[in-house]
């Protein structure tokens, strides 16, 4: 009977029969403890971000440096084959400071040296430097014998970014038609959307590149934008009834919107206003707001200068990497800043207005600090003493 009573009390959970440990309460985190934990997690996250940020920045910088090295090698290979480094083609209209006649002469001489048996029409070559006689919006007339009317114009000539892709993008194996032949930079407009039939993947590239890094691209179609007028059309030199087109692409670093720039530093030793071209101009032609916005970041970007090695030189400034070429990129901040230029704005005395900074001493500031080049081991900030 007694055992039965104890069993009943145990079943009821009477305190005399409870497990002593069951009376110990386990409280949760207090508010103070929770705040301490959150603070510790925040500190650890901040330390992690502080460590990862520079690592990612360094990795992105290394990617750009590697590609600059590839472009450098491709241009040196081009020089070995063609006999000289390719020229820039920026022009700014007859009222600007650039020597446009010299720009055209340099292009023609180089092209003739690189392709001595070529039969490309001179009007197409003039269009590449923005000096075609045909107005930029006029249609190509390729069905008659008037050679003055067989090429639309590229306002301002090829930019420093467009010229880089043009020269390393490869040319046709046809020695007579390096631009108009198969595998060259042009293609026939023989049906279909002219922006979609560009055989960009079939170019004879001098280096391996990831084609999606070529821009500009329409975000919806991934093709050359239909409203982007950086292209020329010209009559095929073998058949004037066939119209051919060249789209002018630029090459961007992976994850970057800033293009690589090419500046020729091989023609002449001194720098003056007539040969100190910006990375882009619009010549004497007006462009749409879309065009203006896409190019304006390059209007104040010039080749990097250095002091002449001869202190008594008539022209006290030279191009950095003088006698060769420059490849520039805005760096991981993806922001271009105005680089020094030589200005001969005094047309009477031709007095040189010196640049604010010269290579390597600088001082480089703000967005210029992380600018990367093919003639320095690191950034411009790293190069200065």
TrEMBL record:
Highest taxon, organism lineage: Bacteria
UniProt keyword Magnesium present: no
InterPro entries referenced in this protein's UniProt entry, alphabetically: N_methyl_site (IPR012902), Pilin-like (IPR045584)
SUPFAM superfamilies, per database record: Pili subunits (SSF54523)
Pfam (any one): N_methyl
Gene3D superfamilies: Glycoprotein, Type 4 Pilin (3.30.700.10)
The UniProt record lists the keyword Membrane: yes
Keywords: Membrane, Transmembrane, Transmembrane helix
Membrane-spanning residues: 34-56
PANTHER family referenced in this protein's UniProt entry, alphabetically: GENERAL SECRETION PATHWAY PROTEIN G (PTHR30093)
Name of this chain's protein: Type II secretion system protein G
Organism (species): Botrimarina colliarenosi
């Amino acid at each position: 009977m007694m055992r039965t009573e104890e069993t009943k009390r145990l079943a009821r959970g009477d305190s005399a029969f409870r497990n002593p440990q069951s009376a110990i309460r386990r409280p949760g985190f207090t508010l103070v403890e929770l705040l301490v934990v959150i603070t510790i997690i925040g500190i650890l996250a901040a330390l992690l971000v502080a460590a990862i940020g520079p690592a990612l920045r360094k990795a992105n910088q290394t990617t750009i440096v590697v590609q600059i090295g590839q472009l450098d090698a491709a241009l040196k290979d081009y020089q070995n084959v063609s006999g000289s480094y390719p020229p820039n083609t920026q022009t700014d209209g007859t009222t600007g400071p650039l020597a446009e006649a010299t720009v055209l002469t340099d292009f023609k001489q180089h092209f003739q040296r690189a392709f001595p048996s070529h039969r490309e029409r001179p009007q197409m070559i003039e269009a590449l430097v923005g000096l075609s006689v045909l107005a930029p919006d006029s249609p190509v007339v390729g069905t008659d014998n008037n050679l003055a009317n067989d090429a639309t114009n590229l306002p301002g000539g090829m930019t420093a970014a467009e010229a880089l892709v043009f020269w390393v993008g490869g040319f046709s194996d046809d020695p007579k038609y390096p631009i108009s032949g198969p595998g060259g930079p042009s293609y026939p407009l023989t049906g279909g959307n002219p922006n979609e039939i560009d055989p960009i993947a079939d170019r004879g590239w001098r280096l391996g590149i990831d084609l999606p890094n070529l821009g500009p691209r329409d975000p919806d179609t991934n093709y050359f934008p239909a409203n982007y007028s950086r292209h020329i059309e010209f009559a095929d030199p073998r058949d004037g009834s066939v119209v051919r087109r060249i789209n002018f692409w630029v090459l961007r670093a992976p994850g970057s919107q800033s293009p690589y720039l090419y500046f020729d530093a091989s023609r002449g030793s001194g720098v003056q206003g007539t040969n100190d071209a910006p990375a882009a101009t619009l010549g004497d032609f007006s462009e749409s707001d879309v065009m203006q916005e896409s190019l304006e970041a390059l209007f104040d970007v010039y080749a990097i200068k250095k002091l002449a090695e001869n202190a008594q030189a008539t022209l006290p400034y030279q191009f950095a990497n003088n006698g060769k070429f420059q490849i520039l990129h805005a760096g991981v901040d993806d922001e271009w800043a105005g680089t020094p230029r030589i200005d001969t704005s005094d047309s009477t005395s031709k007095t040189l207005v010196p640049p604010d900074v010269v290579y390597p001493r600088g001082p480089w500031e703000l967005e210029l600090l992380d600018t990367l080049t093919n003639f320095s081991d690191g950034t411009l900030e790293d190069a200065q003493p």
